[in-house]
Q: What sequence folds into this?
């Protein structure tokens, strides 16, 4: 009788999985690392790992649709003569004209304005269209200083000094030549068609002591009218927040690693920085230690998708959130209606991230005149406003269920965590316990 | 206006003593200048190293600073003529749009950083990163400049009568650099280029504007971008 070994199915390595193998082959074939847009795609602890407890006998809820739940927020109350008053605590994050098409920027401005919130310029300066369609516009002050000028500083409603961003803390920017149209080139004082690198450090200051002087200069130029934000990538949130406060910031913007980018190395996006969830409590702690919580406002961004995410960020101590990727999706990014064209680009709706190549079928991350016509700024702006309205209603629904008449009254005690990791990062108890890692007892 | 601000002669000169007057009073007075007014001459005494002196000027005013200043003097100047009768700290005339800034002494780091227009004249030496990320400004330095000067310079001209430090013009775009003395080393993608007649003519213009008509353009060498790093190429990775 012949013995046959039982069949053992082929086993693939968990370490060298199909994606990893494909990346090794791609690197070997091309000799260049992968550059892409968007934020991290790996799974990290996030707001999904938190739940609200809701009201019970110990606290009572507010009536939905009947009892008021305020959503307003004022940003820049520390020093600015003209703080920003927003109707909702959800802002539009900085994204550049250049990375985005003109119609896409206009749509963001229109949607934000309908919703009573702010939008933000990016690495490339301020366009007239953007200023005109944004009732409240935050002007980014970036290391490249592309397009920077005192007239635009003065016609901005706030100034955001960008130190870093969540997708690439410690990294600069890059706008590849294929997206450098005549207009983009002229706004950035560079020849058409060349790769535009944005420096990772500011050209005329280093460190918190210099930043303090730089902020003073910006305040003097704008006669102390404008709120000054400082934006940092989520890396060392306790110290970065404390140093931003020390340097004189009115508002700290904290961007976790799920925050998007127009173009960065995949290795950077996936391996540098901390999840948004892990950034909030240290930043809030820094503000509380300095007696500045609610005096210097905290805006959190990076992977905010819903009213639930917004409510959770606010419950952990943020004053507002900012959305980037979600806003792009709302105005049409990665829409399945362009699936045939995504396939031609070797991808699929929902996975398209070659934003730097300028071939976006949705007309958003492109400077191609034909593609960008696909964005109707009025209709897309309306879609963004609808989405912001839903996010706000969702956050209010949760806040009322927790008995809060203002979103800012949400607190960590309203939350529990589903996982040990989330409990440790958010410093809220593991569901069903009164304990989280790092805190004694059980 | 602050009581300590005195008018020396009606309509002609306003004097701000920063020993007794807050900086805010000076800058707000400069910003309050109405277009077309004759009341455009300012003098600043006792600057004592103050930061952000005469920033955000947007009218053709004349400001004479009698002493040395700290960071960002004449920052974002747009049309003013600012003379510092002393030395300047980091970032003098940063992001200048137009106008003229003259430093009688030395300038610290980042002089003329990201400047988009106008003329910056430094009669002493300038420290490191002079003209960093320059975007159209013209800078003339009578003395020498430090390392990493004109880093990522996009456009404009940097003229140096003395020597340049290490890594001049690193990652340069289209800014044009003229150095009369020695260059310790050139940065990535920066090379010496032929001095053609149009460059000699431009250099002569800049020297004349800077009050250096007697200096001969032929004594300078020109440096610019090799343009090899304009589009990313893996074979150039060692250069970054």
A:
């Amino acid at each position: 009788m012949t013995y046959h070994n039982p069949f053992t199915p082929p086993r693939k390595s968990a370490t060298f999985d199909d994606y990893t193998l494909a990346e090794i082959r791609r690197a070997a074939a091309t000799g260049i690392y992968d550059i892409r847009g968007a934020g991290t795609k790996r799974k990290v602890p996030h707001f999904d790992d938190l739940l609200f407890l809701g009201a019970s006998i110990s606290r009572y809820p507010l009536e939905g649709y009947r009892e008021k739940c305020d959503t307003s927020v004022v940003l820049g109350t520390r020093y600015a003569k003209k703080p920003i008053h927003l109707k909702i605590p959800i802002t539009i994050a900085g994204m550049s004209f250049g990375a985005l098409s003109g119609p896409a920027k206009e749509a963001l401005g229109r949607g934000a304005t309908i919703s009573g919130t702010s939008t933000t310029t990016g690495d490339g300066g301020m366009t007239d269209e953007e200023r005109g369609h944004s009732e409240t516009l935050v002007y980014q002050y970036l290391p490249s200083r592309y397009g920077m000028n005192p007239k635009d500083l003065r016609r901005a409603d706030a100034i955001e000094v960008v130190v870093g961003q969540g997708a690439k803390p410690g990294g600069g920017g890059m706008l590849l030549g294929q997206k450098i149209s005549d207009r983009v080139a002229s706004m950035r004082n560079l020849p058409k068609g060349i790769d535009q690198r944005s420096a990772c450090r500011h050209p005329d200051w280093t460190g918190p002591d210099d930043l303090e002087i730089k902020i003073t200069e910006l305040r003097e130029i704008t006669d102390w009218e404008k709120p000054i934000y400082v934006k940092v990538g989520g890396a060392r949130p306790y110290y970065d927040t404390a140093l931003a406060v020390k340097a004189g910031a009115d508002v700290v913007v904290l961007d976790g690693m799920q925050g998007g980018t127009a173009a960065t190395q995949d290795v950077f996006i996936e391996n540098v920085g901390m999840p948004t969830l892990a950034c909030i409590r240290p930043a809030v702690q820094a503000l509380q230690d300095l007696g500045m919580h609610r005096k210097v406002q905290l805006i959190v961004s990076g992977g905010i998708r819903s009213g639930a995410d917004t409510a959770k960020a606010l419950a952990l101590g943020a004053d507002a959130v900012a959305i980037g990727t979600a806003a792009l999706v709302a105005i049409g990014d990665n829409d399945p209606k362009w699936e045939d064209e995504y396939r031609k680009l070797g991808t699929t709706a929902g996975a398209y991230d070659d934003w730097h190549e300028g071939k976006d079928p949705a007309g958003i991350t492109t400077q191609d005149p034909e593609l960008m016509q696909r964005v109707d700024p009025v209709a897309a702006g309306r879609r963004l406003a609808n989405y912001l309205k839903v996010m706000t209603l969702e956050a209010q629904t949760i806040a009322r269920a927790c008995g809060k008449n203002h979103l800012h009254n949400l607190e960590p005690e309203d939350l529990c965590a589903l996982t040990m990791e989330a409990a440790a990062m958010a410093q809220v108890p593991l569901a069903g316990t009164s304990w989280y890692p790092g805190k004694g007892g059980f | 206006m602050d009581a300590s601000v005195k008018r020396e002669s009606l309509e002609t000169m306003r004097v701000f003593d920063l020993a007794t007057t807050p900086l805010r009073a000076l800058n707000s007075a400069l910003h309050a200048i109405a277009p077309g007014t004759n009341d455009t001459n300012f003098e600043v005494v006792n600057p004592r190293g103050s930061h952000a002196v005469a920033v955000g000027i947007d009218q053709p005013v004349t400001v004479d600073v009698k002493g040395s200043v700290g960071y960002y003097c004449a920052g974002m100047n747009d049309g003013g003529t600012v003379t510092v009768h002393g030395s300047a700290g980091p970032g003098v005339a940063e992001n200048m749009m137009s106008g003229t800034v003259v430093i009688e002494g030395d300038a610290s780091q980042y002089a003329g950083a990201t400047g988009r227009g106008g003329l910056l004249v430094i009669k002493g030496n300038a420290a490191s990163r002079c003209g960093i990320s320059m975007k159209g400004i013209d800078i003339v330095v009578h003395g020498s400049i430090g390392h990493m000067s004109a880093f990522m310079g996009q456009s404009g001209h940097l003229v140096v009568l003395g020597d340049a430090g290490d890594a001049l013009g690193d990652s340069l775009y289209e800014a044009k650099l003229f150095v009369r003395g020695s260059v310790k080393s050139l940065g990535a993608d920066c090379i010496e280029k032929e001095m053609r007649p149009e460059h000699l003519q431009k250099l002569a213009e800049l020297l004349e504007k800077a009050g250096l008509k007697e200096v001969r353009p032929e004594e300078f060498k020109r440096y610019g971008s090799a343009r090899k790093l304009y589009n990313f190429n893996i074979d150039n990775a060692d250069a970054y």
Remarks:
- Chain B touches chain A through 42 residues (CB under 8 Å).
- Chain B is about 10% helix and 25% strand.
- The radius of gyration of chain B is 19 Å.
